[in-house]
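From the methods appendix. Each design record in this collection lists the tokenized structure first, followed by the designed amino acid sequence. Records were kept in a plain field format so they could be parsed without special tools. The example shown here is representative of the layout used throughout.

RECORD:
FOLD TOKENS (326 positions):
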């Protein structure tokens, strides 16, 4: 049934493919966070349901990516002591007037998570002080690990000296991947996630964050909360901004696109006359944390949430825009 759930991994997660780096060797890359297809597979999402996410959950709080055009004036070992939202003008994205001659300004957007409710307040106020930063801001709660192997079944890495390296992502203890399921469906309490099938536990959450999909009739911009496949015509790569034909983007701040895996049919290794479905590198997507601006009269959306596209990827949570009004 419709509600919020937390996915707790029991160990490191691999989300990638084996690529050759030498004779009889290879490297497994790890992409993070999990995309909508991988999450849907983990929870066994029916075709008549929808998900929002991935978001992040710890100690009864929902966390979201810190938007890219955010900076600090005093980054230290313990993280920023204050936060400021950059402003857009004819000269592009600019720091606040009182900081324009400050050489110590440092962009920290995309490097932290921020509690969901405080993000909404911070974006309206444009500034967050030391006490709020300490309570609401956290460093990214995951790390990349590289595991060495000397045996692999499918790729025949068996003889002495055979080697490949597997890059995995380990989520910190106490943290979970949060998502909302919309529809008449309750996921299993146990499942698997990632290329190696890392066991996970799935628990319902009592809290509700329904304002992530609230109405905003006069929106002048949006914060990208989940990675998006802003499709470019005749190309397998993501634009840095949504391709709204009737609603052009006035300005944006987006990170570089990252590889994304799609389902493709390839010949079966044991029977080349048959085909199997597998995840392979195929396209690029825009990471979460981007911010988009448009004119008030040309808002492409009236409600926050995943942007509808012709490929129905919004059902898997891609391109969730949190709308705001200047």
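DESIGN:
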């Amino acid at each position: 049934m419709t509600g919020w759930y937390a996915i707790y991994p029991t160990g490191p997660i691999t989300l990638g493919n084996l690529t050759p780096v030498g004779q009889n060797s290879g490297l497994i890359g790890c992409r993070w966070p999990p995309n909508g297809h991988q999450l849907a597979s983990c929870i066994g999402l029916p075709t008549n349901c929808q998900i929002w996410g991935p978001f992040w959950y710890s100690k009864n709080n929902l966390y979201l990516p810190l938007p890219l055009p955010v900076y600090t004036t005093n980054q230290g070992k313990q993280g920023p002591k204050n936060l400021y939202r950059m402003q857009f003008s004819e000269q592009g994205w600019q720091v606040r007037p009182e900081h324009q001659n400050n050489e110590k300004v440092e962009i920290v957007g995309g490097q932290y998570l921020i509690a969901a409710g405080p993000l909404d307040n911070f974006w309206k106020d444009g500034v967050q002080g030391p006490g709020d930063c300490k309570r609401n801001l956290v460093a990214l709660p995951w790390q990349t690990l590289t595991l060495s192997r000397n045996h692999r079944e499918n790729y025949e890495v068996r003889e002495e000296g055979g080697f490949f390296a597997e890059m995995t992502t380990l989520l910190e203890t106490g943290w979970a991947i949060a998502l909302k399921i919309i529809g008449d469906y309750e996921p299993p309490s146990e499942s698997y996630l990632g290329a190696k099938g890392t066991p996970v536990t799935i628990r319902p959450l009592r809290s509700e964050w329904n304002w992530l999909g609230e109405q905003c009739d006069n929106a002048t911009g949006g914060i990208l909360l989940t990675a998006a496949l802003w499709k470019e015509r005749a190309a397998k790569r993501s634009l840095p901004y949504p391709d709204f034909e009737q609603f052009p983007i006035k300005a944006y701040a987006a990170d570089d696109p990252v590889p994304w895996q799609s389902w493709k049919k390839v010949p079966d290794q044991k029977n080349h006359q048959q085909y199997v479905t597998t995840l392979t590198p195929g396209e690029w997507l825009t990471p979460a944390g981007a911010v988009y601006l448009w004119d008030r009269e040309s808002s492409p959306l009236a409600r926050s949430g995943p942007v509808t596209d012709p490929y129905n990827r919004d059902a898997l949570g891609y391109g969730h825009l949190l709308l705001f009004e200047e």
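APPENDIX NOTE: The helical segments are 36-43, 116-125, 130-136.
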